[in-house]
Specification:
This protein is an alpha+beta fold. Strand 6, helix 6 and strand 7 (230-234) form a beta-alpha-beta unit. It contains six helices and eight strands, in the order ββαααβαββαβαββ.
């Protein structure tokens, strides 16, 4: 046993071959169907290993649904090919009159990297899916991930919720301030860009790990206030991660992560 988690439960030994947290979270009931979770985890590099995921029966059921529904309803699109998803969505926004710069800098490798979801991301995806099943409706979570000076402890602050956005996480900010005073650094803000199988009319199933204009504004605040180092976006399979020093590479002219027709520009 190592350390004590935020929830008061002593950490248990976890095999490096297993993607799971060693501690139980403290749970914060929030208004509007949102829930907060905090973990204080012993650091291990496997938590940040791409493709090393928690999985489980609910995840397998979701993936079976996803890989059947998206190709069937969105002209054969492979939801497990993030580049194909970005190219597909880029075409939709281009045809609606929006600039494609932010898709282009990801696709041409100018900023960040696309990889498979890592262990921490998958644990948090599972938490969101347990509360708000992704097969039922597309919803998002947001999470701050911090490391201490010696890279011995990982603090995770997760907010799950029933909406296709992440509202302000006011309950977290005092905790971040306290951690930073103790020498922790904000490694990243992570959030989910889920697939939305309901949007067959405009053929934008989302699931793209591209920051929207509102995302970029929030990241800028995190840099200014907390010296956040990175931003991570996952879709439950793939993730896009970039250093916030490169925030200016994006122009933020993408208003939302999904096109539903209401933002059409007259050309």
């Amino acid at each position: 046993a190592v350390g004590v988690g935020h929830g008061g439960a002593r950490a248990v030994a976890v095999s490096n071959a297993t993607c799971q947290f060693a501690t139980a979270p403290a749970v914060h009931s929030l208004p509007g169907g949102f829930t907060g979770y905090t973990w204080k985890e012993p650091y291990r590099r496997e938590l940040f290993q791409d493709g090393f995921i928690a999985g489980g029966s609910a995840y397998e059921t979701y993936m079976a649904w996803l890989t059947t529904t998206i190709p069937r309803d969105f002209h054969g699109l492979n939801p497990l090919d993030q580049r194909a998803c970005l190219i597909h969505q880029r075409g939709i926004f281009k045809n609606a009159g929006f600039p494609t710069h932010d898709w282009d800098v990801i696709l041409n490798g100018s900023v960040g990297e696309i990889g498979k979801m890592n262990c921490v991301e998958s644990i948090l995806w599972n938490q969101q899916n347990a509360a708000h099943p992704q097969k039922t409706a597309a919803t998002e979570f947001g999470a701050y991930i911090l490391l201490d000076k010696g890279n011995t402890t990982v603090n995770v602050y997760l907010q799950t919720g029933p909406t296709l956005s992440v509202p302000g996480m006011d309950w977290v900010y005092p905790l971040l301030d306290a951690d930073i005073k103790k020498g922790y650094r904000v490694l990243t803000f992570l959030h989910l860009h889920p697939f939305d199988a309901s949007n067959t009319k405009y053929q934008d199933c989302a699931g793209t790990c591209i920051p929207s204009g509102p995302d970029l504004g929030a990241f800028a605040v995190d840099v200014a206030k907390y010296k956040a180092e990175q931003a991570w976006i996952t879709n439950g399979d793939a993730s896009f991660r970039f250093n916030l020093k490169n925030l200016g590479m994006f122009n933020g002219e993408t208003p939302t992560e999904v096109y539903r027709g209401e933002n059409h520009r007259e050309m």
